[in-house]
Write a structure and sequence with these properties.
Layout (H helix, E strand, L loop, with lengths): L8 H17 L4 H27 L4 E4 L10 E4 L1 H20 L1 H7 L5 H20 L3 H19 L6 H31 L4 H7 L7 H17 L9 H7 L2 H28 L3 H28 L3 H21 L3 H29 L13 H4 L1 H15 L5 H14 L3 H29 L14 H19 L2 H15 L4
Antiparallel strand pairs: 1-2
């Protein structure tokens, strides 16, 4: 009797990297461990693409682990809200592992390669599990798996300053996870279930809404910490800066976005529909912090002297864009948020891959030390140009599409929306300033001495160049991610059956 594997795609998205992780530990030759990790990541990417294509056609993939019906069993679900992010997570894991091979071999001790790549697959499994889980407590379980794996990966490089960065990340991540778990416990106390769909049915029937509102507050703050929303972002800059370059590529593309997804999924499915007062609180909490994050972190990035740290502060500002759209509580605003998760992942993947290429010739990645690098590394510099243009939001790039949708959503808000549009435009000009400052050093500043080095290794250039070109492809042909984002916004806002 044949078995239809397409029915098991949601669980395969998680268990393939989860079961492969302990097997990779046994592969002692470093090339073999790396090759196995890349193969698993590419398989996860293929699974995510298959599910996204089915969701685009209107399917919802639902899986009951062990055949146990929810709410008694564990359920997994893939729909328009998480299908695009599954592609981002598995794609980022594949790009980073494949494109940063030389960088990984240079930064990680050979004897630690199997353990490092096992943690890599655990991070992929944890993030994928958070996305597909339809159970609030299992989201917490996968959150902890991904967090523990990310701590190992960040501290896995030769930079001992990463240990302090990891400790700060651990403290903030633990606080965030604890707040989330307290909120889930309060809802469980009021409803007696952990299944998200069952919670959504029972929460409006709770007689006393005060514990539910308290749970909403705990969950929102906890996940805002995980998502590095300003001013709860203090762990992010040093973690990205001191992590191995491949880890920075992986985390910058998708790490915080998965926490944003969980925040939006839980808040809109559980709290928005049944309580108008919470909707107002949600907007009043997120909107000011998002606007402050956009302005303050863009300003900090303008004066930051280390390349990866500058890109990290830029990421916090981009998280502000994502949550600003969500705080509008409109279909257009949510569409811009979900689309910007995808487009920002493309831009940051290209930029951090360019940084990884530069690190093969410049160890500290101080911006001033990159003077004249474009003369010897023209392809790497071109990758940075394309990623920077998408980050700014230049027409023809992916970043422009999501910013245009956001501005359109803001203009629907009247006079207040005009003020927020002005803030978005000012922050885009700030992005021009810090991207141009780097390009000026790369292309126009005279080096201190004679440059005697060549481009990054060919594989790194191919992967980095591909990531940069994707920013143009989805800037000129944004139909697929835009359609998935619109479907997802309809699901969250209540427009889909």
């Amino acid at each position: 009797m044949s078995m239809d594997l397409s029915l098991h795609l949601p669980i395969l998205q998680v268990i393939v990297p989860l079961l492969a992780a302990p097997l990779v530990v046994l592969l002692q030759p470093r090339n073999l461990a790396w090759a196995a990790t890349v193969a698993v990541c590419l398989l996860a990417f293929a699974i995510a693409l298959q599910m996204a294509s089915r969701v685009l056609l209107g399917d919802i993939l639902y899986y009951e682990v062990g055949g146990w019906r929810a709410p008694f069993g564990i359920a997994l679900q893939v729909d328009a809200v998480n299908a695009l992010l599954l592609v981002v997570v598995s794609g980022a894991a594949s790009l980073a592992a494949l494109g940063c091979r030389e960088s990984l071999f240079a930064q990680i001790e050979p004897r630690r390669h199997p353990l490092f790549f096992a943690a890599w697959l655990l991070l992929l499994a944890g993030l994928s599990g958070m996305l597909v889980s339809a159970d609030a407590f299992n989201i917490f379980v996968f959150m902890e798996i991904s967090s523990l794996a990310s701590y190992i990966l960040i501290a896995g490089g030769p930079d001992r300053r990463a240990l302090l960065a990891v400790f700060k990340y651990l403290v903030m991540g633990t606080i965030g996870a604890t707040f989330y778990l307290i909120g889930v416990g309060l809802i469980y106390m009021m409803t007696g279930t952990l299944n998200l769909a069952d919670m959504a049915r029972l929460v409006p029937e709770v007689a006393d809404q005060r514990p539910v509102l308290l749970a909403a507050g705990f969950i929102t703050v906890g996940l805002a910490l995980k998502a590095a929303l300003f001013p709860m972002h203090v762990w992010l800059a040093n973690a990205y800066m001191h992590a191995p370059h491949a880890v920075s590529v992986f985390l910058a593309a998708c790490g915080t976005k998965v926490a944003v997804y969980v925040l939006l999924r839980i808040d809109f499915s559980l709290f928005q529909a049944g309580n108008l007062d919470h909707s107002i609180r949600f907007a009043l909490f997120l909107m000011p912090l998002a606007l402050l994050g956009i302005l303050v972190c863009s300003a900090v990035a303008m004066f930051e002297g280390q390349l990866k740290r500058m890109l990290a502060f830029s990421s916090v500002a981009q998280i502000g864009y994502i949550l600003l759209g969500a705080s509008l509580l409109s279909e257009a605003g949510l569409t811009s948020s979900l689309l910007h998760m995808f487009n920002h992942a493309l831009a940051k993947s290209a930029l951090f891959l360019a940084a990884a290429c530069l690190s093969m010739r410049f160890m500290d990645l101080r911006i001033d030390s990159l003077a004249g690098a474009a003369r010897q590394m023209p392809v790497t510099s071109a990758v940075f140009v394309l990623g920077g243009l998408s980050l700014i939001g230049v027409p023809g790039t992916a970043g422009f599409v999501s910013k245009w949708v956001l501005i359109t959503a803001l203009l629907e808000q009247g006079e207040q929306g005009m003020v927020m549009v002005a803030i978005v435009l000012v922050s885009s000009l700030m992005a021009v300033a810090y991207v141009w400052r780097t390009l000026e050093v790369l292309y126009f500043k005279e080096p201190a001495g004679e440059l005697k080095f060549a481009e990054a290794p060919p594989l790194m250039l191919v992967i980095a160049g591909s990531a940069a070109l994707l920013n143009l492809v989805f800037g000129l042909m944004p139909a697929v991610p835009l359609a998935l984002s619109q479907q997802a916004a309809q699901v969250l806002i209540g427009g889909a059956p």
